[in-house]
Amino acid sequence: MPAAIQDKPTAQAGKTPLVVRLLVLATFVVILNETLMINAIPRLMESLHVTEQAAQWVSTAFMLTMAAVIPVTGWFLQRVTTRQGYAIAMGVFLAGTALSAAAPTFAILLLGRIVQAAGTAVMMPLLMTTLMTVVPEQDRGRVMGNVTLAISVAPALGPAISGLILQLGSWRLLFVAVLPIAGAVTYFGLRQLDNIGEPQVSTLDWASAAMATLGFGGLVYGLSLFGEGESNLGPSIGIVIAGAALIAFFVLRQLKLQRTGAPLMDLRTLKHRTFTLSLALMCIAFLTMMGSMILLPLYLQNLRGLTPLQTGLLLMPGGLAMGLLGPTVGRLYDRLGSRPLVLPGSIGIVLSLAGFTQISMTMPYWQVLALHALLMVSLAATFTPIFTLGMGALPSNMYPHGSSILGTLQQVAAALGTALVVTVMSARATTLVAEGAVAGAAQLSGMKLAFVIATVLAVVTIVVAYLLPSRTAASGDVVAH
Q1: Where's the Major facilitator superfamily (MFS) profile domain (predicted)?
Q2: Cβ–Cβ contacts within 10 Å for residue 29, how many?
């Protein structure tokens, strides 16, 4: 049982605790880096003399490491104080950022990204666990609205910010710019941060850790290979199956350890119906968000001829709207509950994705901007309530495990969304080109089909939103056996 969890919230009603504000700021800075390199691929190819497939690994390796490390964070956060967890996470992130900035070769850059991601993987569960501990239940929606800024808006703004920085010079500036900001956040955070609860000594089941790392990491890796051409199809399927099999063994081992000892990832969290439904809705919503984040830059740059900076500026209003609405949505959740927000949000996601199925070579840019803004606003109306509702359905001793499961599946959903849209688009385009179609028209048709698939999947969010309760008790929402 995590001892770093107190029985009662420590914050005064109506105030966001300083510890949460600091952790939100730090989490924003580290998560921003997940998508910061998307626009830098051409520069990396030219500077470090690597292929496009190899250059894509600066993003893939980050996502892969997150998926592999997050399952261990539940155990890790039990053993350390809040300050220790923060110092280790930010210290590792800073080391990875410095290594990436100075990387003389692509291999060193990749190592730096992996180290960066290992630090990032700790921040999200640390933030969620601390928030659920110190914030009173009636204020969690408002505070979780600020958290939405870090976990949802940061990756949405990554390409826009990187496009702006890349106008000024080398890809190394992306890391040079982050380094002093992350350093300042770390310094002031350690000066102000207080420990929440006490750590508890617990043993790590190394077999579980290995299964989780290889299983979730393998699954994300296999999914990331799907978009790299038919030659990788066989290995991709094999790696995905192997990863899924290891995850199945991991699940069986956790069920056994729940009876005899402390599991690495406590799956009893999934007995809480509201948490499980929230998890499903979050995964589908995040899948559609990451899918659209991959497709729209490809459409705007490859087919419409916009520069990375122009693309970033066109998509930035949606990301900013999502961030600015986060706290407002949180306050509305505290007053109204989840249903008045999540149901309209889910419908908005479906409508925006349906609009993108009509993209063409002549679609006005204001229409692209409006549809993207609708998608981001709808995701904002969805994410904050489901995070708050889902975590609030768990007893306090399961917060680290709940946030660990949520963070892990978020990475798997991101990888699945990317793999799905790229695979559908590539397969459709290849078929049409073989039939004699022009390459641009074939790619456009592939994008439309990918958006159709995303729209169909998003319809599931409406169903799940309808099944969710408007509010939940902290520990009374358990599925009967």
Answers
A1: 19-473
A2: 22
CB 182 within 8 A of CB 94: yes
DSSP 351-383: HHHHHHTT--TT--HHHHHHHHHHHHHHHHHHH
94's CB contacts (< 8 A; 6+ apart) are 119, 179, 182, 183, 186
The pair of three-digit structure tokens given for residue 441, joined into one six-digit string = 């028209």
Please identify which residue in the block is written with the tokens 């700021």. 25
Residue 136's Cβ-count burial label (10 Å; 0-12, 13-18, 19+) is middle
Cα distances (Å, whole numbers) of residue 46 to 41, 59, 104, 171 = 9, 17, 14, 11
Distance (Å, whole) CA 49 – CA 410 = 32
Helix H or strand E encompassing 246? helix 233-260
Backbone angles phi, psi at 51, to 5 degrees: -75, 170
Distance CA 263, CA 248 (A): 15
Alpha-carbon distance of 75 to 2, in angstroms, equals 8
Instruction: Return d(Cα 35, Cα 223) in angstroms, integer.
Output: 17
**pLDDT (tens digit, 0 to 9) for every residue of the chain, 481 residues total?**
344 434 344 445 557 778 788 888 888 888 888 777 877 777 888 888 887 667 777 877 887 788 788 888 877 877 888 888 889 999 999 999 999 999 999 999 999 999 999 998 888 788 877 877 788 877 777 777 777 666 667 776 777 788 778 878 888 998 998 899 999 988 988 887 777 766 666 677 788 888 888 888 888 778 777 656 566 677 888 888 998 999 999 889 888 888 876 777 888 888 888 899 999 998 888 888 778 877 888 888 888 888 777 887 888 888 788 877 877 888 888 888 888 899 999 999 999 999 999 999 999 999 999 999 999 899 888 888 888 888 888 887 787 778 888 888 887 887 778 778 877 888 888 888 888 888 888 989 999 999 999 999 899 989 988 888 877 654 444 443 3
Q: Could you tell me which of 333, 381, 341, 325 has the C-alpha nearest to residue 140?
A: 333
Can you state the angle between helices 57-79 and 106-134, rounded to 10 degrees?
A: 40
**Residues ≥6 apart with Cβ < 8 Å to 248:** none
What does 429-459 look like in DSSP terms, one character per residue? HHHHHHTT--HHHHHHHHHHHHHHHHHHHHH
Rounded to 10 deg, the angle between the 365-392 and 273-298 helix axes is 160
Task: Tell me whether residue 198 is exposed, middle or buried, using C-beta atoms within 10 angstroms of its C-beta: 0 to 12, 13 to 18, 19 or more.
Answer: exposed
Q: Which of 367, 357, 321, 329 is nearest to 345 (CA)?
A: 329
Eight-state DSSP code of residue 33: T
Cα distance between residue 100 and residue 111, in whole Å: 8
- The single-letter DSSP state of residue 12 is P
User: Using only C-alpha atoms, what is the Rg of the chain?
Assistant: 21
Angle ∠(420,425,428) on CA atoms, nearest 5: 120
